[in-house]
Structures are given as C-alpha cells and as structure tokens.
Amino acid sequence: MAPVVALGVAVWLAPGVDAQRGGAQGPAPTARAAAPIDISGYWVSLVTDDWRWRMITPPKGDYLYLPLNAAGRQAADTWDPAKDEAAGEQCKGYGAPSILHLPGRLHITWEDEATLKLEADAGTQTRVFHFGAPQPQAAGRNWQGYSIAQWEVDGGGRGRAAAARARHGSLKTVTTRLRPGYFRKNGVPYSANAVLTEYFTTLTDGGIDYLVVTNFLEDPQYLAQRYVRSVQFKRQPDAKGWNPTPCSAR
User: Residue 55, exposed/middle/buried by CB under 10 A (0-12, 13-18, 19+)?
Assistant: First the structure.
C-alpha cells in the first residue's frame, strides 16, 4: 500500500530579487535556475482516496461532498454523455480543474527557461505554466486555460541570500481563461469564469519522491464556496507505463 500523504496548509514566501546591502545587483536567475524543488520527470498517480469518483465515472446526480449551489446541481442533473459525444466535447472532464484527479501518469519538462510543460496521458492533455509577466493571449478559451506560475520558498526572509539558503518550496500556479467543463466527469460543472489556484510541492519518504498537488477552485456561478482538494503522485524512473489515451465522455 502506498503511503497516504497528509499535508497541512502552509504559507510560503516568494523569493525576491533584493540586492544584498552594499553589494551590486546582478541579473535575476531564470525560473528554471531559481527552482527550489525539482518536479520534472515522470509521475504516477496514487489513488489513496475518492476511489469511487476517480477510478470510475460516477452516475448522474452523484455530487456528494461537493459545495455546489443550486445552479451547479441543476447543471449536473442534466449531464448527458451522448450529447457531449455528439458535440465533440468528450474532453469536458479533462480540463485543468479535473485532469490531475484522473488516474494516470504525468510527464513534466522545461519547455524553456521560463516555461514548464505538464503532459498527462489521461486524455492526452498538455498544460503550460508561464513564469513572469503574462504574455498576450490568443482569443478564445481551451480546456487547460492560461496558467501563470511562480516559485514560493519555505521559511522566512527575502532576496537571493534567502533563496540560496532555501532547501524546499512549492510551485504556485493560477489558471484562468478556461473553457467550461466538468471537475467531476459525471457532469459536475465549472464555468468560463472559474479560477484554479494550485500548489505543487514534493517530499521524500523511504527514498521515494512524492509530488503533492493541492488545488483551490473558485467559481461563483456553480459553487457556493471555494472547493479544496489534493492529490498525490509517485516519481517514476522512466516512461514505463506511459500510455496516452483519448478523452472519453463516459
């Protein structure tokens, strides 16, 4: 049995670029060079909870423990996978708010010094995390939205000296511009105005690396309050088991 990872809510301070007092300020490190943790590589999901909602598609109307408002419940009660298939929207349950909760594997790589790419074999989906100022965005929305990223370093202090001393931290991402979809595959909805905030962090237990992702979904259209949940992954040494599959509405 894989260990269940239990994390409390922590606050991390982002490293600044303050020059040391009396010293010259050089160029800021790239996002890749400044990373306090390494989340690159292959990871496999650990389904340690919510098995009945993650390993199989729940029946219509099963939205137990979800903070849906009346509009959210009404929308979930109209779920029709055949209609989604006919409309070419089989991927509605594979958007950013739901993709990491589906069983499968991740492959995380640096696209360049300021861009992380996360590929999921479930639904053959790709997410991109942009460090720095937002870039001009193309018109329209997509399942994975547009994600702004920043590193947050554990412990107090700011500046390069604090960043150099840091031994751990997390990746914070904020995703907007989402195409409306489902955060549970049985039609539990999120709207185009939803905002997804995620924290990716790592820990090692018994020589095994784990990736823990905690996300906060806010959507006044369908949620009565912010929905918080977390998932865990175990590092894999290579691509063994990597199996991209198409989206399924059922």
Answer: exposed
Q: Which residues contact 161 (CB under 8 A, 6 or more apart)?
A: 20
238 vs 103: CA distance, rounded Å: 18
**pLDDT of amino acid 4:** 41
Q: How many angstroms separate the Cα of 145 from the Cα of each of 168, 173, 176, 219?
A: 28, 11, 6, 14
Alpha-carbon distance of 125 to 119, in angstroms, equals: 6
Write the CB contacts of 133 (distance below 8 Å, at least 6 apart in sequence): none
**Could you read off the pLDDT of 53-88 as tens digits, one per residue?**
899 999 999 999 999 999 999 999 999 999 999 999
How many residues can be counted in the chain? Answer: 250
Distance CA 64, CA 203 (A): 30
- What is the value of pTM for the model shown? 0.85
d(CA 159, CA 19): 7
